[in-house]
Structure formats: C-alpha cells, structure tokens
Amino acid sequence: MIHLNTVSKIFNAGAKNAFCALDAVSFEIKQGEVVLLKGASGSGKSTLLSLIAGLGKPTHGEIVVGGKHISKLPDHFAALFRRSSIGFIFQKFNLIPTLSVFENIIVPLIPSNIPEKELCSRANSLMHRFGIAEKRETLIKHLSGGEQQRVVICRALINNPRILLCDEPTANLDATLSYEFVQMMQTLKTEGKTIVIATHDSLFFDLPLIDRSIELSKGKQI
Amino acid sequence: MMLSPDVIAILVLDALFLLFGTFAFVLSLGIARHFDAHSFHERQYALEKKALLVATIIQYIFYLKLPLFLFFIFTSDTISNLITGAMCAAGVVNSVDFGLLLFAFKIINLYLFGFWLVLHTLDLKNETLPYTRAKFSLFVLFFFFLVAEIFCDFYFFNALNIDKIVSCCGTLFSATSTSSIRFIFELPHPILLSMFYGTFALHVMLFFRKDALGFLLVNLFFIPLSILALILFFGTYIYELPTHHCPFCFLQKEYHYVGYLIYITLFGGTFFGISASIMSLADQRKTYASFYRYSFYLTALFVAIVSAYPLLYFYRNGVWL
Amino acid sequence: MHIKFNTYLLAYALNALYRRGFKSFFTFLMLSFITFLMASILIIAHAIKYELSLTIDALPELTIQNLQAGRHQNISLEHLDTLLDIHGVQRAIPRVWGFYYFDNAGVNFSVMGIDTFDHQTKEHLETMVTAFDFEAFVATPSMVVGKGVQRILNENYYKDYFNFITTEGNFQKVSLAGVFDARTSLESNDMIFMPQEIVRNIFGMHPQEATDIVLRIANKDEIATIITKVKALYPSSRIITKEAMRVSYQSIFDYKSGIFLALFLVCLVTFLMIVYDRASGLSSEEKKEVGILKAVGWQINDILKEKFYEASIIAFSAFLCAIIAALFFVYTLQAPLLRDIFTGYSVLKPTFVLPFVVDIQMLSVIFFLSVPIYMAAVLIPSWKTATLDADEVMR
Question: Fewer CB within 10 Å of terminal CB in chain A, N or C?
C-alpha cells in the first residue's frame, strides 16, 4: 500500500543551513496494517508523513502509495490524491475555530462541489457515529479537547480514505481521551483502513492494535 | 486625444493587461524553456507554481476582456455622436487607418485566449502535464498579439479627432464604386444564402456525427460567411432598408441592441465548436460533448435570430426587400 | 475554464473574511470610499452633461452674431430679410437678451426679450407665451421669471415687482406676472422673460437692433451651404451651429471629468499598494489555514478560487455600496462641495437641481475602474498564499 524506497529529504539543499530531515528511509506498509512511527520530536516523523501525503517532495528516493508515484506527481494531482485517499489527524487538531462542527467536517469536500444531499448525509452519519451529532452547529472554539478530536477524525474520514495519517494524535489529550482514541482506531482497523501513527507517546507502544513499529532517530531508520 | 471617462477606463485596463501580460510573458519564457514534468529539481517545483500564476493571470485577462470588448463597442458607438459624419461604431473605427485591424485583433485575441484556457484545462486533466510546454510557448506568441492590440487601442483613442469628418457606415458598406469592399456585393443572394444555410446544415450534421475535423473546418468557415451574410442580406432586413448594409448599426438602441445577441451567439457558438474539435483531436478518448452541445445551441440560436428578420418582414409585408 | 459556482466555497470565503474581521472591513471601507468619490464625480458630470444636452437640443440650428473687432456687437434688423432670402432658411428670428447684474444679491439674471408676434426660438417659450398675455405686458411692464429668480427677489423683499436700473440710470419698474417651470433647471432657473421693448429699454438698445439672429433650417443637410452663404454676405459675422456647441460642451465635460478621473486614479493606485502590501503579509494563522486546506486535499487552484471569491465579495459589495452612497449624495444631498468643481459659475447663478440620470455606460465605467482593479491588486498576493508550503501545518 505504502512503499518508500531510499527516501531522503534535505531542507535548504545546497545552502549553508542545509538540514537533513530524512536519510535514506525505506519500508513498506501493507493494506490494513496499523504501523507505529516512533521517535523523539525532531526525528523526522512529521516530514515523513507529509511526504507520504504528497504535501512535500523528497529530495531523493521514491514513494509509491496505492500504486501512485506520489513523489513524481505534480502538486495539482497530489492534492487530488490526498482528497481521495488520505485522511489526516493532526497534533493540534488544526480545526478552523470560527466554523461550526459541521462546516469543519465538510471542508475537504468543498472543492468537489458535490450535491448538498450527499454531502449532508455523509457528514451526518459520521457525526452520529462519533457522538457529536448534537453539537452540529456549535463553533469549534466552544468545544472541549475530546470533542475537537472527534471532529478531526470525522473530517479525516469524510472522503472515505484508505489511509489515515496521525501526527501525535494524543499529545493534547488526557489519559481517558487517549484511551478513547485508541478504541476508535481499533474500529477503523477492523474496517480495513491502513493507519500510520507518528508518536512518542508510550501509551501506544505495547498495544495489540499496533502491527508493527518503525523507529526514526535524527532522520535515520533504526 | 479623447479623455472621456470611458476611454480612460479602457486605457487603464489596457495598461493593467500590459503589466500583467509582460509579467506572464517573462515567466512563460522560463517555463517553456525549462519545464520538465519528470524532473525532481527544486526549480521544477517552482516552475509548477509559476505556471499556475501565469494561468491565473491569463484567466484574469480573458474574463475581463469579454465584457470589456462589449464595452469597447458600446463606447465607440457613443463616440460616434461626437464625430462628425459617423452614425455608429463603424464610422468611428474607420476614422483611423488601422481601425478594422484593431477590431480584428480584439476578436482574434478573445479566440486565442479562450483556446489557451481550453488547452490549459485539457493539460490539467493528465498527470504528465503533456501540454504545459506547448501552452506556455503558445502564450509567448499570443503575448505579441495582446501587445499589438493594446498599442492599437492606445493609438486609436489618440488618433480620434472630433474635428475630422469621417464617412458613415452608409458609404463604407455600400455597393458604390468607391467602397473598398465593393466586389463582395456582386455575390448574388441565392448563392450566398444557400452557402450560409448549407454550412449550417453541415454544422448540424457533423454535430450529430461528432466529426472533430469536419466540425473544426465548418466552424472556421462559418465565421466569415456569417459576417458576409449579415452585411449583404440579413442586415438589410434588420434595418428594413435595402441599401443599409452596416454590420455595426444594429448594435444600437434603435434596434434593441440585437447586435450584441447576434455577435455573442455567433462568436460563442464558433468558439465552442472550434474548442470542441481541437480537444477531441488532441485527446481521442473523449468527445467533449458539452462543448459540441454549446456550439450547436448557440449557432442554432444565431441562425434562428437572423432568419427571423427576413421571415417576419415577409410575413408582414408579403414581399421580400 | 469551467467555472462552476460553489456555494460551500462562497460560505467558506465569507467566513474567512469574517475571521479576519478588521482587516477585511478596512479594505471594504477604503475601496467603497474611493469608488464612492469616483462615482460621485462621474454622476455629477453625467447629470450636468445631460442637462446641457437638453438645453442644446432646444437651440436653433444656427445663431448669427455680429462681431466688431472680434467682440460681440448688436446686430441690425435690416439683415433679417436678406437672411430670409437664402434658400433653405425657414425663419430668421431676432433675439434680444442679456445679463442683468443684481448688485444686492450679487447674482446675474439672464433677461430674455419676447416678441409675441414672432415665432419663439424654443418650444417651452412657445407654451409660456400662450400661457401668459405678453401683449398686455407692454402696456403695464411685467415679467415672467424662473424659480431661482423668484426666490432671490423674495429674499430681497421684491414681492410683486422689481426695479431695473437702465443704462441711463433711471428705474424701470416691472411687475412680476408669474413664475414658470422649465424642463431643465440649469438653463432657465435664472431666466427673466419680458417683452422685447422693455428689454431694449433696460439695456439701452436701439429699436432696430437685436442681440443676435437665429435661423431655423428645415433640412439639416443644407446647413453647411447656408453657413457659406451667410459668411459671404456678412464676413464679420460669427455663425454658431448647434452641433458645434454640443460637441464642445461634451468634450469640455469629458475633459473635466477625465482630469478628475486621472487624479482619482492616483488615489486608487495608492490604495492598491496598501491592499497589495496587506494581502502579502500573512499571519501565522493564515499560513496554518492554507496548510490545513492543502493537507485535506485542496488544490492550489481551489485556494486561489477561494481567494477569488473573497476578493469578489469585497469588490462587489464595495461597488454596490459606493453606487448607492453616491446616488444618495448626489441626488438627495445635491452633492455639496463636489458639484461646484463642475459648474464653476454656480456661485454666480442661482442654484439648480441635478436631473436624475443613471445609465449602463456610466455604471460600467465605475465598475471597470473599481472591481477589476481591486482584483488585480490581490491577484499576486493570493497566488503567493496559495502556493505556500504546507509544511507549516505539520509543525
């Protein structure tokens, strides 16, 4: 499903302040696998996730996701690929504070301009599933951390993606909410989603949910 | 020099087009030379972004040029009040030597920019961006047309002289010996009309058969033929005067601005027709049915409008002009 | 190429503007104000032009004045018959008129003589002559005045009559017989009509002289020939055609509004520099937002489109507000300060009301000079925003 072949990313290549964020990383993740991406902060986890999503381009190497050469895709098509195949769950939620729950959830669908009926039914079923239906019209800034996390998950799932990329998903959650998050990932795993969780939270380290771990340190694979 | 508000508006926007156009031109040169969809170089990513900027600028210019062109005709019509002898835009346009050239440039540029955008859409449909280099090379060429048009615009308004007496459309489009386009008046109406309706019939037929090459040729041929038919035949029925052949006067209020409708349907129809054909030729897998359809509807509407005039005249008066 | 309207994107754009509250509002306000200024100037110029064109429409085709040493002199009535003999001249009508300076109020009145036996030079004079009994006015000197004149006379306690001071220094008492209302107030607000004999008396003119002679011509195509004939008969005369007056008025007003437009453009450019600058400087919030949007699958084009919607909302609402405000300012408030620029002589003339004219052409000019230019100013900053690296969001 996700295939990395000696991927390197050097920021400001050639300049004095050149910084090697990733150095010859290679691995493969199969469909339906839940993979943990371990490492201290600054080890290159976030960079790796953004390369898999096609948000950035590697300096060397090749990334193939779902049969598509993401690293070779012009930005225009990389965005289309993200829209159809990738769901993102961010560390700081990254929701838009002045929009309501519903409006935040449909943000990924706005460019496709699909009919209102379909859009509403998709958003509503997700909100029901994650128990935030009654907060539909509430503005994000009035929500608790746990509720925001659910909104983020709904937004990540609205396009029905095959791959979920989570970047430090539990950094802003307390123990109960973190556990709740793991439960939700568990259900998503049973639905056959491929999930990559980048974290240094020890909570995840010995969970049965995790199929495999990949550890990074200073951009290198250990 | 005319310094009326309308002229200033046109010139200001021209200046803006020139500024943006030049910027886009410089960027296009770089893209046309260095763009390589297979490259991993940082420069390639920068070029992809710049390509989007150029495309945005071209869209801006095109979508503004459409209403501005109508406004230009409208303004020329207004100026005709000021210029002795001019009855409509025709007189104004002809009061300078290159007036008709300016008009031609304006229309051609609209087509060119429109086609560019069609190519752009087509390009963004394929992951390898197959037409990127081609479309920016084309823009480098089109830019000179744009510059030529803008300079013509400037000299046109600069050269307009309200003290000069010009010929009105009555002399410009007449069968008298002094007229420069006299020879076309010798074309008999039955031949002209059978060519006109024949081409339209061909248009309809090829529309149903979705024959790209034929459709392209028919549309290209239909533009000059229609203008000729307007001047020689249909115009006289709009004015209900057998001697008045002007293709500009019916843009005026007296004729309920029907000219705008006539030209929009004619140019719109042929534009979509030509675009549909070019796209189908470039990309054999699809037929671009919607463009074929727009072309067909607009052209049919055009034919219906111009045909209505002589038919109604005959219905009311029982005779042809 | 295919621009399909996207209501969700519109809602999103509205919310984005709201999120940047003050910044958006400031831009909207400035753009509205500048557009309002331009719209006001154009609307005033347009209204005055319209008023003048109505005045000029009513003028006779040819006016013949007598010149001596390049100055306008009275013309002898002996010429009338000779002029009438020219083929194509329908009528030759002598006019007796002039300006009377009323010291107390510091205004000029236009005094126009009426000859009841002759044809009138303008249509509305014809209706006035039938409405009032000018023949009786000769015996008991009386006059009909415009509304502005009546107001000024009232302010100076002349209710029923007015004492004109003749060139010899005598008083000529003229009673006020009535007030007339004309189609255009610019031309006739300051008008006083009375029999020609009394006008001659006030201005000290010879009975066999007139101020000028106007010609009615049946066929417009003959005007040029008639001009050459008159010129040959009276080499010292000046012949003014209606057409020439119309053209010169129109170009004067075009020129005047053109100059103000040029000044206005300087304002606009300054403003757009500010807009460009503000749009280019992005807060970390905005950078993060672009990052989020890209991460969830928006293309650069989608973000550009969203920015386009934002700019359109600002530009169109500012345009509409400016137009409404300008119409209110010009027609309800009668454009204080601004209209003096165009009329110039309005200090000397009694006030007048601007006629209401709005046409598509004027609105188009205002549109083309506001909306697309604003769009142009935000085009490059929008592109810069849209092509930001999305990494920001990942940190």
Answer: C
The answer to whether B38 contacts A74, with C-beta atoms less than 8 Å apart, is: no
| Mean pLDDT computed over every residue of chain B | 86
Are B235 and B160 in a shared domain? no
Q: Does A160 touch chain C (CB under 8 A)?
A: no
Whole-number pLDDT of residue C63: 86
A167-214 pLDDT, tens digit per residue, is 888 888 888 888 888 988 999 999 999 999 998 888 888 888 889 899
Q: What tokens were used for C21? A: 């509250």
Which of B56, B75, B121 shows the shortest C-beta gap to C379?
B56
List the single best residue of B40, B122, B129, B132 to mutate versus A (max A Cβ within 10 A): B40
Total of domains in chain B: 2
Contact C338, B23 (CB under 8 A): no
> Which two structure tokens, joined as six digits, stand for B316?
């009311």
A58 to chain B: closest CA residue: B40
Task: Output the DSSP codes for C85-107.
Answer: HSTTEEEEEEE-EEEEEETTTTE
**Chain A residue numbers touching B127 (CB-CB < 8 A):** 73-74, 77
Contact (CB, 8 A) for A18 and A11? yes
The CA distance from C107 to C99, in Å, is 10
Q: Same domain, yes or no, for C221 and C275?
A: no
Residue pointed to by tokens 């869209």: B59
* Residues of chain B below pLDDT 70: 1-3, 84-85, 162-165, 170-172, 174-183, 287
Residues C118 and C235 in one domain: yes
Give the phi and the psi of residue C141 in degrees, each rounded to 5.
-50, 120
Report the gap between the CA of C32 and the closest CA in chain A (Å).
Answer: 26
Interface contact A75-B124, CB threshold 8 A: no
C383 lies in the same domain as C275: yes
Range of the domain at B57: 5-166
Do C129 and C260 have their domain in common?
no
Final residue of a domain: which of B139, B166, B193?
Answer: B166
Is B16 at the interface with chain C, CB within 8 A? Answer: yes
A42 touching C (Cβ < 8 Å): no
Q: Is A75–B127 a contact, with Cβ atoms under 8 angstroms apart?
A: no
Nearest CA in chain A to C7: A113
Name the residue among B38, B40, B48 with its Cβ closest to that of A75.
Answer: B48
Residue C190, Cβ neighbours under 10 Å: how many? 25
In the listed set B166, B183, B207, which residue is the last one of a domain according to the structure? B166
- Mention every residue, 6+ apart, whose C-beta is less than 8 A from residue B177: none
Cβ neighbours of residue A149 under 8 Å, at least 6 residues apart? Answer: A93, A169, A172, A173, A177, A181
Contacts of C265 in chain B (CB under 8 A): 8, 12
A→B contacts (Cβ < 8 Å), by residue, are 13, 57-60, 71-77
Supply the DSSP symbol for B16.
H
The amino acid occupying position C247 is: V
Q: What are the residues facing A195 on neighbouring strands?
A: A34, A164
Inform me whether the C-beta atom of residue B57 falls under 8 Å from chain C C-beta atoms: yes
